[in-house]
Design brief:
Beta-lactamase; 2 domains; 5-stranded antiparallel sheet; two-stranded antiparallel ribbon; binds glutamic acid; acetylation; Glutaminase; hydrolase
Length: 309
Amino acid sequence: MTSTSVDYQKILNQINQEFIDQPRSGKVASYIPELAKVPSNKFGMHLYDLDGSNYCFGDSQERFSIQSISKVFTLSLAMKVMGDKLWNRVGVEPSGDPFNSLSQLENDSGIPRNPFINAGALVVADVLVSSFSNAKAALLTFLHEITGNPQIDFDPVVAASEQSKGYRNYAMVNYLKSFGNIENDVEDVLDFYFHQCSIAMSCQELANAFIIFANNGTTIGSEREFLTGRQVKRVNALMQTCGFYDEAGEFSFEVGLPGKSGVGGGIVAVHPDRFAVAVWSPPLNPKGNSALGMASLERLTTLTGFSIF
Ligand code: GLU
């Protein structure tokens, strides 16, 4: 099947109809107090095709907290500024452990398994704090440039909410620093990290931002290259193997696309050379991934026949 022979809007409508009235399984994240306030029935999806067409349903234009999805943006920026030296400080292996686990760091001498678990994302945050005089502004500029949308911003209320309860991340960054894998003041690294996680974006904006990972690092329309083909290969490989905490195997098995989830209930996935798609439903399964988001993407790849496998 070619992209053009698939009626994406019809398939998205079908997914919406299949799930909209079903009772939601899973639980909205509550360890960040602000996230617990988000209504559990929110549900939206947006697919951005490489030909520039957009397809959507439901709450696809409402912004939510992207949380760990931000790790894909910070990794991309760190790869640009640090090149292959980044891999001396963070690995590229799936962890098989929960996203906020501290246990592997002891055996691995403070080198996190990959950039998408919290320990790895904190090292990436440290790289950015070292590389820019204002890392938060640099991250927003990167997002504004890849999307052409200057409205994307942090949510300071969510950032403060996570900071007030961020005990594990405080422990983790101090532990990393004890191994010499954090250069900056831990407060500066955490301030950056809590802000990156607080970024608010809609499914539409996320699909737009992720199109560069489906298009060899280049935006569509303006055709600006932000990452090389080699860098995109690596980001997509990491999303495929490490993008869903200790459920990356299950996501590959059921959906078959590189992607990244966040505890705000968002998931973004890409089909290289075809599309980027984002889905949002806040209740999370026991592994911390949006239960309905995963089910919806499984239906998308089944109904279209488009997975990378
Ligand atoms: N800010 C969250 C944390 O560090 C991100 C977790 C996630 O989305 O996986 O706990």
